[in-house]
Design brief:
Radius of gyration: 22 Å
Number of strands: 13
CATH architecture of the largest domain: 3-Layer(aba) Sandwich
Strand order of the largest sheet: 3-2-1-4-5-6-7
Bound molecules: uridine-5'-diphosphate
Strand content: 5-15%
Largest sheet: 7 strands, parallel
InterPro entries: UDP_glucos_trans
GO cellular component, one term: cytoplasm
Order of helices and strands: EHEEHHHEHEHHEHEHEHEHEHEHEHEHHH
Distance between the termini: 24 Å
Shape: globular
Structural class: alpha/beta
Family: Belongs to the UDP-glycosyltransferase family.
Keywords: Glycosyltransferase, Transferase
Oligomer: single chain
Number of domains: 2
Protein name: Glycosyltransferase
Length: 451
């Protein structure tokens, strides 16, 4: 029986793209000998039953229904950082009072956006570690953005938007993660707090040297504490349980089982992005006219002004017939792993991108906001495993890109590079690989923090 290294408290940020990697990290550390407690907000709390090896505790987040429905995510995150400080402290004090000698609290790992957890850890004299769920290139580009903001150089002109960002090749100014969430003072505050190491002892990063050698090396040079790049963290999640906040429709796997190898394009734009009806219609007709099979996730509410897919006409349904399967939410990792899937049309959220890379599936990149634009540029121009759809969505162009990546000789090099990249990233998660070694070093490091 493995010795218990003590208990870790994990504080995820309550959004899908942050919860999943944090729970994957938790499961990984649990399998390596730690007890793990996840302290979550009431807002967007994950389903406990899927994670029997983790303990979950809820703290009140004080968010009103109006705040939640406002769509100002930066403001929500800032409010959580204020409202949850005292409840987290009370929660940890209670835990420490009742802890068993072999399950002593050894540290707090918090999402970079949940920096109130560091204040609490510090007050209770517990070590804390930051978990960054995004890529290193985004972190560096946020730094650049911060300099522009502080220097009063925002917004930049239309002509500048096409220019390369100095020192950040191949990013262009238009790729910088200027979020449309909330107002700019809020963004400035969130960005500043997110990058500050404070008294934390280390940074865990869901990325890998094999994808981001150069941005990681630059960050490591400047960072005063050790960095553990353990990505793709889902590769170390031995339980591989779902962390979906929405119900996964598994009927799409049965549908995929009936399709030929690499014959299906999978489309999903993640948990937050939304589009107007006109783009939705171009997307629908582009898919139909490509004459390829498709599995399409349309999240309820993601088409502005519609509940779901009611804007699709009978003509459309007749045109696609059984060539398409539309669901509200899919078991995405399982879908990407399925041999019938040959292409992923994605918004380039970092988790989706890593999941696609790990399965060797080439991508069409349609970033919406924030980090997605940085990642899309890396997918298309650094790793070259996808095509960036930069123009306004138009059915003719969509049809052409799908055919090129799915069927034409022109797409063969991209398809091959996607397989090569998968092999490279898989190697870092295998015994002796850089992320594998990083996970082992992280465990030793946490043990060394014990007083
Ligand atoms: N996801 C899923 N089913 C879907 C769509 C997305 O399970 O139908 C998961 C996906 O596997 C990924 C996460 O939701 O792990 C989305 O995170 P990402 O960082 O890609 O984008 P975000 O939602 O943060 O924009």
């Amino acid at each position: 029986m493995m010795r218990n290294h003590g208990r870790l408290v994990l504080v995820p940020c309550p959004y899908q793209g942050h919860i999943s990697p944090m729970l994957q990290l938790g499961t990984c550390l649990q399998s390596l000998g730690f007890s793990v407690t996840v302290v979550q907000t009431n807002y967007n709390s994950p389903k406990h039953l899927n994670h029997p090896n983790l303990t979950f505790l809820s703290i009140p987040d004080g968010l009103s229904d109006d705040e939640i429905s406002s769509g100002y995510h930066t403001s929500l995150v800032l409010a959580i950082n204020v409202n949850c400080l005292a409840p987290l402290e009370e929660c940890l004090v209670r835990m420490m009072k009742n802890q068993q000698p072999h399950e002593e609290l050894v540290g707090v790992i918090y999402d970079e956006l949940m920096y109130f957890a560091e204040v609490v850890a510090n007050r209770l004299e517990l070590p804390s570690i930051i978990f960054r769920t995004n890529n290193a290139a985004t972190f560096r580009s946020r730094d650049f953005l911060l300099q522009l903001m502080i220097g009063g150089h925002l917004p930049f002109s239309d002509s500048a938007s096409q220019e390369l960002v100095p020192g950040h090749y191949p990013l262009k100014f238009k790729d910088l993660p200027i979020s449309n969430f909330g107002i700019s003072e809020n963004i400035l505050q969130a960005l500043t707090n997110m990058r500050n190491i404070r008294t934390s002892s280390a940074v865990i990063w869901n990325t890998t040297d094999s994808l981001e050698e150069s941005p990681l090396a630059q960050i490591k040079q400047e960072c005063p504490v050790p960095i553990f790049s353990v990505g793709p963290i889902h590769k170390f999640d031995t339980a591989a349980s779902s962390s979906s906040l929405l119900e996964e429709d598994t009927s799409c796997i049965t549908w995929l089982d009936k399709q030929a190898r690499k014959s299906v394009i999978y489309i999903s734009l993640g948990s937050l992005a939304s589009m107007n009806v006109s783009d939705f219609s171009e997307m629908a007709w582009g898919l139909a006219n490509s004459r390829q099979l498709f599995l399409w996730v349309v999240r309820p509410g993601s088409v502005i002004g519609s509940e779901w897919v009611e804007s699709l006409t009978n003509d459309y349904k007749e045109a696609v017939q059984s060539r398409g399967c539309i669901v509200q939410w899919a078991p995405q990792k399982q879908v990407l792993r399925h041999e019938a899937v040959g292409l992923f049309w994605t918004h380039c959220g970092w988790n989706s991108t890593l999941e696609s890379i790990c399965e060797g599936v080439p991508m069409i990149c349609s970033p919406f906001f924030g980090d997605q634009k940085v990642t899309a540029r890396y997918v298309s121009e650094v790793w070259r495993v996808g095509t960036h759809m930069e123009n306004k969505w138009e059915r003719g162009e969509i049809e052409k890109i799908i055919r090129m990546l799915m069927a034409d000789d022109e797409g063969e090099e991209t398809r091959q590079r996607a397989i090569d990249l998968k092999n490279k990233v898989e190697a870092c998660a295998r015994e002796g690989g850089s992320s594998y070694n990083s996970v082992k070093k992280l465990v030793d490091f946490i043990m060394s923090l014990k007083l």
